[in-house]
Amino acid sequence: PDGRSLYYLSYRDGFWNLWMQRFDPDRGRAVGPAVQVTDFTSTDRMILHRSQLQTAITDSEFVVPLTESSGAVWALDLEP
Fold first, then answer.
1. Do 53 and 64 touch, CB atoms closer than 8 A?
2. Can you say whether residue 6 is alpha, beta or left, with left for phi > 0 and alpha for psi between -120 and 50 degrees?
3. How many alpha carbons lie under 13 Å from residue 79 in its C-beta half-sphere?
4. Which of 8, 18, 46, 78 could disulfide-link 37, Cβ–Cβ 3.0 to 4.6 Å?
5. Of 62, 19, 16, nearest in space to 42 by CA
6. DSSP alpha helix (H) spans, 1-80
7. How far apart are CA 45 and CA 37, in angstroms?
8. What pLDDT was estimated at residue 32?
9. What is the pLDDT of residues 5-63, one digit of tens each?
């Protein structure tokens, strides 16, 4: 909303996460280091791969779809 923050998705740690970089529009430069906004670091809950990603932006929200996975291990008894 203030025109001084750039939000972007990055795969820098092997998982998609939302990052924010403060920006000085008058000087056209970044201000300080980028800040990681989300911390998804496992396949249990993560932002979808960019090929499936659709985002929505409002004045106060950056919306990205998440996927959650849970699994079970099944054993099948094989009869000889």
1. yes
2. beta
3. 0
4. 18
5. 16
6. none
7. 15
8. 97
9. 888 888 888 888 889 999 998 998 999 999 998 888 877 777 766 666 677 777 777 77
71 token code pair: 């699994």
Q: How far apart are CA 40 and CA 46, in angstroms?
A: 5
pLDDT at res. 79: 63
- Tokens 């996927």, residue located: 67
In sequence order, what E strands does 1-80 have? 5-10, 17-24, 29-36, 45-47, 56-57, 62-63, 66-68
Tell me, rounded to whole angstroms, the distance of Cα 47 from its chain centroid: 5
Q: Check if the beta carbon of residue 16 is closer than 8 Å to that of residue 40.
A: yes
Cα angle value 43/15/22 (rounded, 5°):
140
Structure tokens at 30: 């970044």
pTM of the full predicted structure? 0.66
Residues 80, 57: Cα–Cα separation, whole Å: 58
